[in-house]
Amino acid sequence: MSKRRIFDIGFPGDTPPVAEPAVPAGTEAPSRRGPMASAISENAEALRERAELEARIRQENDSLAHEFVRLRQLGLVVDLIPLDRIRADEITRDRSAERDEELDELKESIREIGLSNPIRVVQRGEGYELVQGFRRLTAYRELLAETGDAAYATIPAGLVPPGEGIELLYRRMVDENLVRRDISFAEMAELARAYVRDPECPAGSLDEAIKTLFASANRQKRIYIRNFAMLLDAIGEELAHAPAMPRALGLSLWKRVEKEPGFVNRLARRLRAEPERDAERELSLLRVLADTPEAAPATGGEVKPRKPGAKTTLRVAHGAQIAQCTASDGRVELRLPRDFSAIDRLRLEKAVAAFFAALDQ
After folding, report:
1. Among the listed residues 246, 244, 239, 242, the one whose alpha carbon sits nearest the alpha carbon of residue 317
2. What is the model's pTM?
């Protein structure tokens, strides 16, 4: 049986057939997809892209969460905390019960430019305990009371990591106070006394408390703080202006307390005789009792002769700051962390004139 051969016969007018493109060996010609297959493929691609995007978002959120925890542990997270949720009584402050005269300047600064340095708090239950920033917190409370402005109802606060013991809370407050050049030995001593009295204090003695709180201070300075703390233990209740006491006067008083058993009673009687005394008057009385070279008579009488070249040094409280004064023959020098050149010349002249007028009374 013979095979039949099939031939393509072209007729006149027929369009010649288009040759199919050659497909390389080992590959398949592209297949045509219907609308349903294309939709399924596009949906799968979109789902894959969405899954990749969600994975990147989760990774970024995890990274941000870890960074937030790290910053919070460092106490660098700042939030707006309602004033009525902040307490300031867990740790003893070195602040006088008297109103800070420079608080008005701080309030004016807050009105004009806001609070540039947030306070620091630690969470305690549903509220917060103040660690640093007593003056700033007080300023906000007064501004809220005076203006009723809701802007002062909350205050920027750095969140100290929860779980810190009483030692770290005191250390944070002490470190902030040591930045102040005007902090007195009496204030530092009072912080140490308050710390050792705290039921949660791990220090077993005053010496341990001072060594812990003032670890960055040199040995001699810690000795001075200890002597002031012992002095306050003996006569602290009789003093109305302890922060104004210069170092030399405090050390002289402590020597008298150590050597003379009846000295504390004599000092107490003399101070109680003038309950309304100001800081300058209290220092004058203490100098007489301590019999220091710069002592002046408490109530008139003869002035002790002064040695040639002798100097009188004293410290006077001025709001939250302490002014240091050195007086000698023909010279009076006042030191205070303030730019006196910025004061109006007329006001400065009046102040100096008032100073000399008070000396001549």
Report:
1. 244
2. 0.46
Query: Nearest 5 degrees, angle CA 286-CA 305-CA 290?
Result: 20
Q: What is the 3-state secondary structure (H, E, C) of 61-106?
A: HHHHHHHHHHHHHCCCCEEEEEHHHEECCCCCCCCCCCCCCCHHHH
Query: Side chain identity at 321, as an amino acid letter?
Result: Q
Q: Does 254 share its domain with 223?
A: yes
The per-residue pLDDT for range 41-55, each reduced to its tens digit, is: 777 777 787 878 777
Q: Give the tens place of pLDDT for each residue, 74-104.
A: 555 668 889 999 987 655 554 455 556 668 8
Residue 98: domain span? 62-164
Closest CA to 328 of 302, 293, 285: 293
Same domain, 123 and 208: no
Backbone angles phi, psi at 179, to 5 degrees: -65, -30
Q: Per residue in 70-95, is it b (16+ CB within 10 Å) or e — as a string?
A: eeeeebebeeebeeeebebeebeebb
Q: 339, 315, 337, 318: which is closest to 326 by C-alpha?
A: 315
Strand order in the sheet with 78-82: 78-82, 154-160, 119-124, 127-132, 86-87
Looking at the structure, tell me whether residues 182 and 206 fall in a common domain: yes
Q: What is the DSSP letter of 335?
A: E
